[in-house]
Each structure stands twice: as C-alpha cells, then as structure tokens.
Amino acid sequence: MIRKELVAASAEPMILALLAKGESYGYAIIQEVKARSGGKLQWTDGMLYPVLHRMESRGLIRSRWGESETGRKRKYYSLKKDGKLAMSKHHEQWSLVHSVLAGLQKEYYA
Amino acid sequence: MLDLEKSIADWRQQMLAAGIQTPVPLEELESHLREEIERQMKSGANAQTAFLIAVEDVGRGHLLKAEFKKVGGMDKERQRKCAGIIYAMTLGFYLLATIYAFAKNGLSISQWRLGLASLVTLLLLVYSIWRFAPRIFPLWASQRVRSSVGLMGGISGMVWLIAFVYLILPGFDFTTSQLLVAISWAMVPTLVLPSTAFLMLDRSESQPSKSTGL
C-alpha cells in the first residue's frame, strides 16, 4: 500500500491527467485510479470531492450536472485551460523527482 | 430485509447532522454512494452489505466536513479578488471625480500642477506597492506579524484622514481651489495605506492548504 502523504500529493496531478482524457465523474475517477494502480492507490472515496471542489474553485476544472445511463444524477468534471497548464507543471515536477530517484537507484544497484 | 431508500435517507440525515449542509456536496456524495451500492450488488452482495461497504467507502461526515471547509477558504480568495476590484474601481472613481472637481473650480496653473502631482504620486505609490511589495512580504514569515502590519496600515489610513479634517484643516483659511488641492494630497496616504494593508492581509491569508484527507 502506498503511503497516505504520497497518495495525497499525487491526487491533483492524477485527477488532472485523468480528466485530460475527457470528462468524468467522481466515482469513475476513483475506480480508474484503483484499476490503474492495481488497487495499491487507495483513496477514501468521499475525500475526493473536497479535492475536486478545491480544484474547481482554483479554476483548474469545471463541472456540470448530468445524468447516467440509468437516469441518476451525476456531476461531471472536465479540464479547463489553467488545468492543462497545471498538469504540465505537475508532469515536469514529477518527472524530475522520478528521474532523480531512478538515477540514484541505478547507482545503488550498479 | 433492508429498506435501501430509508437507509440512504438516514445516511443523508447523518451527513447533515455532521455539517455537510450545502446541497451540492451532499447530492454528489449520495450519487457516489448509490453507484457503489449498485456495483457491490452486481458483484453479488446483498443490499445490507452493499450499503455498509458503500457508507464506509464514502467516509465519515465530520472528516468530510473538515475537508470541505478548506474549500470554503478558497471562496475567501475569491472574495479578496472582488475586494481588489472594488478597490481599483474606488481609486478610478476618485481620480475622475478629483479631476472633474479641479476643472469645475477654476484652479490656477500652479494649483493644477500641484493637484495633478498628488494624483500621479498616488498612482505611482499604489503601483510600486503592488509591484514590489510581494517580494518584501515573504521576509515576514509570521502570519501574525503580517496581519498586524496589514491591520495597522488600514487603520492608520483612516486615522490620518480624521486627523487631517479635524486637526490640520481648521488651522488654515483655504480658498475652495486651495482646499481641493490640499484634500487631494491628504487623500494620498488615505488611499495608499489600505492598499498596503489589503496586500499584506491577502498574502497572509490566501495561501491555500495543500493537504488533503485522501
């Protein structure tokens, strides 16, 4: 299981990257993260919504109410221009962290 | 057998009691709860088990409320932006009204120069503060110090105006045009100090919390 601090820090870039693929809603975002991480990235489901709302009030994403195939109300989120910029910045920073760690690990095992 | 709709209604009441009162988060959480119940039941769980798992996954009301409260902090940021716009509009209105008052009251050329100099000084000071002050403010790491300095700036602008009207003005016998020029200079600190105060408070309070409860 991945540490709570890392899960929290990676939430925003992950949500941005998922929404970059297209509009989505809270439940689907959580399911996709679970599936892609093989269940190792566990979010407390309800806690996703304050994060989404915060990102919305920062102008990174927008939302609209829609309906599911079964007619249930759903709130859909999509990426805004500022969200795309934020995503590139996150990508840059996470890539840097990854490359430093990978380099150090390579030296350790060399 | 579990009455799912009644259980969901009870869960809503618990969320409301915990403080999740705004309709949007609660609707959204309920939608999530229902999706999870549906998924669990499709996987073979009975209604009661599905409901309990879904409730557990959504999380406790008081913890969610604490997280949603941080979003409220962002609304404050928006309010500050609005206050900034109102300040800019007040400044613009003041500049136009002052120029109109100068034109209407037949100022001499030297009075015009003095009067316009006060307006230019005001604009340059406000611009300098907004342009350069943010570089200085991070040096004051203590939020309490910054808030105190901010409040002092706001209050001192008002104190100066009161002192000018009640203590300084009665000591002079100004003509209308001289009075206008004197007031235009007196307004410089009155309008500049609140902008410093606003910026200071803005810097001290607008840093959003990065932590999430995920």
Main sheet attributes: strand count, strand direction, barrel closure of chain A: 3 strands, antiparallel
Tell me the series of helices and strands of chain B, N- to C-terminal.
HHHHHHH
Low-pLDDT segments of chain B: 204-211
**Gross morphology of chain B:** rod-shaped
Assign the CATH architecture of chain A. Answer: Orthogonal Bundle
Count, helices of chain B: 7
Q: How helical, in percent, are the residues of chain A?
A: 55-70%
Strand content of chain B: under 5%
Mean pLDDT across all amino acids of chain B:
81
Radius of gyration of chain A: 16 Å
The total tally of domains of chain A equals 1
Kindly provide the radius of gyration of chain B, computed on alpha-carbon positions and rounded to a whole number of angstroms. Answer: 28 Å
In terms of structural class, how would the helical and strand content of chain B be classed?
A: mainly alpha
* Number of separate structural domains of chain B: 2
Give the low-confidence spans of chain A.
none
Describe this structure in words.
With 110 residues, chain A is α+β, with helices and mostly antiparallel strands. Chain A has a single domain, classed as Arc Repressor Mutant, subunit A. Helix content of chain A is 61%, strand content 15%. Chain A has a 3-stranded antiparallel beta sheet with strand order 1-3-2. In chain A, helix 1 (4-20) packs across helix 4. By secondary structure, chain B is mainly α. Chain B folds into 2 domains: 4-59, no CATH class; 73-205, no CATH class. Chain B has helices at residues 4-18, 23-42, 47-58, 61-104, 109-136, 143-168, 176-205. In chain B, helix 2 (23-42) crosses helix 3 (47-58) and helix 5 (109-136) packs parallel to helix 7. The two termini of chain B are 33 Å apart. Mean pLDDT of chain B is 81; it is low at 204-211. The chains are: A alpha+beta (110), B mainly alpha (214). The interface between A and B is medium-sized, with 24 and 28 residues.
